Amino acid sequence: MKKAAYSFPEEVLEHVFSFIVSDKDRSSISLVCKSWYEIERWCRRKVFVGNCYAVSPPILIKRFPELRSVTLKGKPHFADFNLVPEGWGGFACPWIRAMAGAYPWLEEIRLKRMVVSDESLEIIAKSFRNFKVLVLSSCEGFTTEGLAAIAANCRNLRELDLRESEVEDLSGRWLSDFPDSYTSLESLNISCLGNEVNLLALERLVSRCPNLKTLRLNRAVPLDRLPNLLRGAPQLAELGTGAYTSEMRPDVFSNLAEAFAGCKQLKTLSGFWDVLPSYLPAVNPICSQLISLNLSYATVQSPDLIKLVSLCEKLQKLWVLDYIEDDGLEVLAASCKDLRELRVFPSDPFGLEPNVALTEQGLVSVSEGCPKLQSVLYFCRQMSNAALNTIARNRPNLTRFRLCIIEPRSPDYLTLQPLDDGFGAIVEHCKDLRRLSLSGLLTDRVFEYIGTYGKKLEMLSVAFAGDSDLGLHHVLSGCDNLRKLEIRDCPFGDKALLANAAKLETMRSLWMSSCSVSFGACKVLGQKMPRLNVEVMDESGPPDSRPESSPVEKLYVYRTVAGPRLDMPGFVWTMDDDSALRIS
Amino acid sequence: MSGISDTERMITLKTVEGTLFDVKSSIAKDLKTVQAFIDDSDDDVTSPIPLPNVFTRELSRILDYLNNHHRFRSGIEKADEEMARYDAEFAKSMSHEELKALILAANYLNVKDLLEFLNQTVADVIQNKSVEFVRNFFGIENDYTPEEEEKLRNENEWAFNGVEQD
Question: Which residues from chain A sit within 8 angstroms of residue B154, using beta carbons?
Answer without folding.
Answer: 531, 561
